[in-house]
From TrEMBL:
Residues 177-196 are annotated as: Disordered. It is an enzyme of class 1 (oxidoreductase). This is phytanoyl-CoA dioxygenase. One of its GO terms (molecular function) is phytanoyl-CoA dioxygenase activity. GO terms for biological process: fatty acid alpha-oxidation.
Length: 196
């Protein structure tokens, strides 16, 4: 095996970026997706939330903490659009070469999307409603080899711990797959948790 186990020599990532990924299991590439594409995706999301678009095979999930408020509608109610690969506009985020080239530089050229989700954090939502505990994706996706799987996450606005950023444990890609359970969160539908 060569110097790199978790990345491919595609010419997209620098050696420094590849080494960072090898060590940490993630990489941040800022401003990789164009503002034009992000604006198109934002507008499409608003159109979906406002019922202007046939959602077809997509699953539109409302924020469970806001459903009881009859006056909350549109983008202020929708928490997630799942299976957005079925939408001609939203799917562009998954097919954009700026994204797929980076993914291919990690897993190789046989890039296949198996899940697609757009998360929204509505204002006035109960913080527990959108809780997504730390987990290992490999627990949910039985594909192997593990080093040929990657997740891609694109923030559509500035994010940090106060408004819902992605959190990773550096180096955890080299460890064991752990047994998963979930805290007693309010949004049990979202996490398929079983309560005692």
């Amino acid at each position: 095996m060569g110097k790199f186990r978790y990345t491919q020599d595609s010419g997209i990532l620098t050696e420094k970026q590849r080494q960072f990924y090898e060590d940490n299991g993630y990489i941040v590439i800022k401003n990789n997706v164009s503002n034009v594409l992000l604006d198109n995706i934002r507008q499409r999301f608003l159109d979906i939330c406002n019922g202007k678009v046939d959602t077809g095979f997509m699953t539109i999930m409302k924020d469970p903490s806001l459903i009881k408020h009859k006056h909350v509608k549109g983008e202020y109610l929708i928490h997630m659009v799942q299976n957005f690969l079925f939408d001609e506009v939203l799917s562009q985020c998954a097919t954009d070469t700026a994204v797929t080239d980076v993914i291919a530089s990690i897993i190789g050229s046989n890039v296949t999307a198996v899940q697609s989700m757009l998360f929204n954090k509505p204002p006035n939502s109960d913080p527990g409603a959108s809780l997504h505990p730390l987990h290992q994706d490999l627990h949910y996706f039985p594909f192997r080899p593990a080093e040929r799987m990657a997740a891609s996450w694109t923030a559509m606005e500035r994010v940090d711990e106060s408004n819902g950023c992605l959190y990773v444990v550096p180096g955890s890609h080299k460890g064991d797959l752990h047994q998963h359970s979930y805290p007693n969160v309010r949004n049990s539908i979202r996490h398929n948790e079983q309560r005692s």
